[in-house]
Every structure is written in C-alpha cells, then in structure tokens.
C-alpha cells in the first residue's frame, strides 16, 4: 500500500477549503433577499423542452403553476377528496 503524496493531500485540502469559502460567500450574498414570487392571480408558465439532438426528435410541454398559494395547495389533494 502506498501513501498519498503530501502534494495530493494539500491539493485536496485546498479544494475543500475553497468550496467551503465559496459556499459561505454565497450564503452571505443571498442573506435577506426574497425567494420565489409574490402571491397573486394568474399563472407562472414553465416551458419544459427536450430535444434528442436527432432529426425531429424531442418533446415540449408547458406547465401552468398558479400564483395563488391556496390554489397551488389544492393541486396536491387527491381527486377523490376534493
């Protein structure tokens, strides 16, 4: 069994330190900012497209997500219980 060289160990430790510092910076930069969107009327339209890269292959679909939190929650109730 051979041991890892000190250079490889130092490189791994350096990468971990950089990743932790970057995560800390991202958390600080986003602190206090609002996420998501404000409740309201209407819908968000999300376009989900997939193209296989071949000749004419792929799929496209649009999802409509209600902006009203109560209407959004009702979508998760099973049909027999509505």
Describe the structure.
There is one protein chain. The protein is of the alpha+beta class. It folds into 2 domains: about 30 residues; about 35 residues, no CATH class. It contains 2 helices and 2 strands. A two-stranded antiparallel ribbon has the order 1-2. Strand 1 and strand 2 form a beta hairpin. The termini are far apart.
Provide keyphrases for this structure.
82 residues, alpha+beta, 2 domains, two-stranded antiparallel ribbon, 20% strand, extended
List the helices and strands and how they pair.
Blueprint: H1 6-30, E1 43-50, E2 59-66, H2 69-74
Antiparallel strand pairs: 1-2
What does this entry show, briefly?
This protein is α+β, with helices and mostly antiparallel strands. The protein has two helices and two strands; from the N terminus they run H-E-E-H.
């Amino acid at each position: 069994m051979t041991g890892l060289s000190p250079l490889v160990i130092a490189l791994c430790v350096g990468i971990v330190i950089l990743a932790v510092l970057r995560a800390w910076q991202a958390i600080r930069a986003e602190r206090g900012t609002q996420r998501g969107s404000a409740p309201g009327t209407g819908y968000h339209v999300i376009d989900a497209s997939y193209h296989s890269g071949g000749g004419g292959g792929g799929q496209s679909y649009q999802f409509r997500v209600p902006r009203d939190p109560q209407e959004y929650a009702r979508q998760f109730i099973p049909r027999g219980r509505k």
